[in-house]
Amino acid sequence: MSLPALGTDTALIVLDVQKAIDDPRWNSKNNPGYADVIAKLLAAFRAAKLPIIHIRHEEANPASSFYVNGPGQPFKDEAQPIDGETVIAKQQNCAFVGTALEAHLREGRINRLIFTGVVIHNSMDITIRMAHCLGLENWLPLDATTAIDVTDANGKRFNAQTVFDLYAAVLASEYCRLTQSEDVLSALPSSESGAM
Questions:
Q1: Kind and range of the H or E element at 103?
Q2: Can you name the CATH fold of 10-187?
Q3: 144-170 mean pLDDT
Q4: Cα–Cα distance, 92 to 112 (Å, whole number)
């Protein structure tokens, strides 16, 4: 889907792209190249001087790969923040719960979000739904996120692509618009003209 021209009312959200996601328990990803796509989007948003918000998950449970004092806590190399970019820490799956994210968006007059990160069936899903409830316009480039296999309480396993496709369909039914990273890049202002 084609995006409108993107300006300073648009922010790139980079959600939970931390070393934790490289733990073996996350190995069944359907879209293993998602982090390289995020790196391209980061470079383009930086060149256009548009807002970037990094969300870092700080999990209290030591068994989690995202444990706040564990080796998975740092951002992945492809998604390292640079000086001047906003970093918001969260302790819940939803990036709006117990954080300053909404206040930051309102203060910056940001009403359109481009969501990237992990995983579509967990923190991405609940954060996008909450953003919709707050009246924000949400876009999800499908090549900039991923899913993993999910096993239900009865032991039935759903492969990552099935999980991904289902969650993308549900999110697109009401909560966001689906797109691809190339469409996002095409909607950015050129580096010659700067941000709109």
A1: helix 101-107
A2: Rossmann fold (3.40.50)
A3: 98
A4: 22
Q: Among all chains, which residue has been given the structure tokens 């996008």?
A: 128
Helix (H) or strand (E) holding 196: none
The reported pTM is: 0.95
Token digits for 145? 């996120």
- pLDDT at position 191 is 52
The predicted-structure confidence for 98-153, as pLDDT tens digits, reads as follows 999 999 999 999 999 999 999 999 999 999 999 999 999 999 999 999 999 999 99
3-state secondary structure 42-56: HHHHHHHCCCEEEEE
**Residue among 42, 122, 115 nearest 84 (CA):** 42
Torsion from C-alpha of 184, 104, 66, 12, nearest 10 degrees = 10
Task: Kindly compute the dihedral angle of the four CA atoms of residues 142, 144, 149, 152, in this order, to the nearest 10 degrees.
Answer: -70
- Burial (CB < 10 A; 0-12, 13-18, 19+), residue 99, is middle
Rg (CA), the chain: 16
Yes or no: say if 22 and 34 are a contact pair by the CB < 8 Å rule. no
